[in-house]
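hey so i finally got around to running the thing on that chain from the lab meeting. sorry it took forever, my laptop kept dying and i had to restart like 3 times. anyway pasting the input first so we r on the same page abt which one it is
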Amino acid sequence: MLEGITKALTDSFKVISGNAKITEANIGSVINEIRVALLDADVSVDVVKEFINEITAKAIGEQVVRSVNPREQFIKIVYDGIAEILGSTASGLKLKPKSSKALSVILLAGLQGAGKTTTAGKLAKYLKDNEGRKVLLSACDVYRPAAIEQLQRVGEIAGVDVYTGDKKDAVKIAKESFKKAKTGDYDVLIIDSAGRLHIDKEMMSEIKKISKDIRPDETLFVCDAMTGQHAAEIAKEFNDTLELTGVILTKFDSDTRGGAAFSIKKITNKPIKFIGVSEKIDGLEIFHPERIASRILGMGDIVTLVEKAEQIYNEEEAIKLEKKMRDAEFTLQDFLEQMEQMSKLGPMEKILEMIPGMQAQMGNINIDESKIARQKAIIQSMTLKERNDSRIILGSRKRRIARGAGVSILEVDKLLKNFQKSKQMMKKMMKNKNLLANLGNLK
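ok and heres what got predicted. didnt touch it at all, straight out
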């Protein structure tokens, strides 16, 4: 995500290192690098021009604090500028309070291929799991082949109901689903409207009619983050017709250049509310501008990482795991469970990006996820007894495990040896941790 911008910016900041103060001369080349990086990322020319003018004016006129070096101060100016362009702070959904038992309506709009139907399911899942809402999905895309069936599958995975009606008249389906939601004790109705390959009057007329009849609390424009600055122009056209309340950027985990994220808020003045971060049903996150700005500048995003971890791990499990490590009772079964838990956080490269300073240390190193998959396959080919006591895995057992995992015996050997070394290392780490804690108590 936004790797091109990140590399260009972090490389350009090195130019300022060693300078006693910020001057027009020593930031000139850096400003130019930032301009090129943003244009390469397909950010709107007008947005780039305004951004460059603002950070230049702030940098030249900034009084350098003695305790902060010029490079750090300039990075802070750029960080503040990026965060402001992206929206400054997170903007949540403005729904009716759950306690009021009143129905809230969310209308999703956008072009075909942006991932609107999948996003409807993700949003339903998010509201159900995180806010305890009872959600009904309304299948109003009656034009795209299999769109209704897709929404039904997505709804089933998300664990929410889907209203399909006659599968022919979108306006009628919207009205009927609204009535069903009102009488069926639902908190939220999410309408998946039809998309087109391009904007046309027929599509706009239909969705405008739905909006007028249903009067949604939120009208969200769903767009592909890979569309670039063109997404902002499309969003503006939708906004002129519907009065959007926000934006959801899909495919934000892909090799997106970032133009949509930078341009859309500035051009439409509508906040980005969510981003799609994976194809999984739970792959939807609240958009935090300041955290994204931090990631763009290679400073990580430890807050999001901790929030992700808290959703997966609980304190009781952590205490049990710590005791196993301390007593050297950590088994291959525990190792497998930890790998599976880690996979829920997302790809390893994305996790490391969130750790401050890690991106710079990694450079161009690529994490081979296939190696992790092979390690999991090897352990999964073992019996539970073998996983809990790896010492019994000898000749014939190794051959059977290797065949089951589709790997060589050498790979099984390597995993077992590395695991034993890791166990000893864990035990030493836990001992050192306890020693430091005891020393601290003596103060």
